[in-house]
Amino acid sequence: MMQRKPLTVAMMALFATPFAVTYASPAMAQSTVAVPTQGATQSKTPTTTEAPAQSTAQGAAPAATLPQTEVSGTSIRDEYQRDISTVGGKVPTAIRDIPQSVTVIDKAVMQAQGATSFADALRNSPAITLGGAEGGQIGNNINLRGFAARTDIYLDGFRDRGQYYRDTFDLEAIEVLEGPSSMLFGRGSTGGVINQVSKQANLKPLNEVSGTIGTHDQYRASFDLNHPLSDTAAFRINGFAQDIHTTRDVMNNRDWGVAPTLKLGIGTPTQITLSALVQHNRDMADYGTVGYNGSPLPVSKQQFYGLTTDRTVQDVMSLSAKIEHKVDDSLKVTNQTQYSRYVIDAIETSPHAVGIANGNGGFTSLSVRPTAGVPSYSLDQLWVQLQSHDRKITDSSLFNQTDVVKTFSTGPIKHTLIAGAELGQDTYENQAYSRTGAGQSTGFLGWIPASSTAYYANLPNVTTTTGNLAQGTAQTVAFYANDTVELNRHWKVVGGLRWDRFKAQLSNTVSSPGYATQTVNYTSVRTGVIYQPSDAQSYYFSYGTSFNPSLETLTVTNNTQALPPATNESFEVGSKWNLFDDNLAINTALFQVTQDNARTQTGTSGEYTNAGKVRIRGAQVSATGRITPNWQVMGGYMFLNSEVVQANDGTQGNVLANTPRHSLTLWSTYTLGHWEVGGGMKYMSMRYAANTNLIRVGGYTRWDATIAYHQPKYDIRLNLLNVFNKTYFDALVPSDGGRAAPGIGRTALLTGTYRF
């Protein structure tokens, strides 16, 4: 507790500052004229000065503007709905002109839900399921439409490939584009991509501080300061610090971050943006619990399997420079460079197997699958074997991207042409370490009682040895072009091509292969047809492809380096409607994603072929916006029918890991004068922890609620998470037969925000 005291006291002081200032200056607070509340806008478009010009360059219809509504002297609050996204066209594009499913999670939704982590914010998309810590992969592990998307996370259009736990403190929105999208983003993107949109400096002054106190010893503080420097320049800086404990025993996060942005030339033909993200995390990885008898080990949601000395230290630095030059009303050139570096120092312990004492001082492991003739044991009779996952990882990337946007006409037909090039290099280094207990195999520490809550700092007689050093580099060269053709006011055709050259090399000091190299040349395609009978309706059909090289993550299992890339294709048909004077957006889609050349293990251990095939068929519907001036909603339903169509490893015919058949999300708030009340739920049906389908994780429904009081100068919000204290399993991990991490129990968060 003494170790947390300085940070805790500092955050509590910051939390108290808004209220101290408010009560110290009551006359000033009372005389203040009602102004728009935090981030309030009268339009659903992003609040940047250049957005209208960019939208026009895309040929996109401007987003509908909501009439200003006064509610007891307070202006209308932030909108959940956004009409423009950058993720579907590499530049701001009207969502109705993107022939794929797009979900935009606005900061208004995140603030209303108290969602400060990237993972919590993504719960608003029914296409997303969460993975836990996984072998050499830590940080945010995401499945999108049933496919792993850990390397398909982007920050302002650049791949954010680092293995760290992301925060929302500097995010304006999170954009989820569903379906293979290599034409836009290059390798990966089997299920789609997730783009983080950072907050940008602008000409509207803003000074805001927030503080949160929560049950189970949670403290968080953040600030958002935007200062115009002149009529054409502005500086903005966001920051946060937190000391978070949850209902999971032992788990804690102590993190901080800062993100400055300088924007020059606002409103002029040439605009320059310089930005940075610096973040430090000291967290504990949650490997959950192992499987037993076909299900996760039936323990309390507070139970933690690991050591109290575990920690994952992550240092993130990302620097970006962007130049945008508008040659004329029809031509715009953008060049952007980003350098990112991620350093991770992890000492982590996970449950590996379940067993019983054999009476000779040792233990006998039990199968994770139900086995006929084998008795069931009570939790008090079971023991859990612990395994170490220690490593130091350094990831870095340097990328440059140039985009040219040209609008022109050929007779009555209008074109919006985007052409560009991307050059970049990724580097990766992973030094592994193993902690081994006496009499245990390398990397295994020993056995502890499965039901014990007497947590250990260390196990006795454990030695540490240096393991494999993996090093890898990859170079990317890509050229692409996409044309949106407006045949007439009702019909549009989208078509694009991208050529990628991905060349990777890696080496291992202990593991096999000792050295591997791979060069992949691939041409991705994208095409779509859009029919828009009115401004409120849009119907589309699209086809897209993507590819996944076996050295994509710069790590490899032996005998996969020579395999051709897995290839993916998607067919999608859908509709997008705007109801209630464009205040409510309804989206529907039917789709099929097929992965060919999927890597599958042969009968010989350690050898793989590209004979696998995986297919997902699905449907979804979503709604975002206002039903009435005071009533906002965001929700969606996803149906996924997944199947391993072909495999050599015994999984043929099985359901894909962490892919529920049904997912439903809903969040709704209602404004009553200065008060706001609301809540929502997340439903997920049964899932399997791995493609082997041995560990079955039951479905669940979790309910959350909020109540807030708004004033022009300040907001006070109470969030209640997991209202009914539901026990459920959240993040799933395929390894060790399938592991599952329990979700949090009932948690209350009180947040105060002050604007000055």
UniProtKB/TrEMBL annotation:
Residues 38-50 have a biased composition (Polar residues). GO terms for molecular function: siderophore uptake transmembrane transporter activity; signaling receptor activity. Residues 284-723 form the TonB-dependent receptor-like beta-barrel domain. GO terms for biological process: siderophore transport. It is a multi-pass membrane protein. Residues 1-29 form the signal peptide. It is found in: Cell outer membrane. GO terms for cellular component: cell outer membrane. Keywords: Cell outer membrane, Ion transport, Membrane, Receptor, Signal, TonB box, Transmembrane, Transmembrane beta strand, Transport. Belongs to the TonB-dependent receptor family. This is Putative TonB-dependent receptor BfrD. The gene is bfrD.
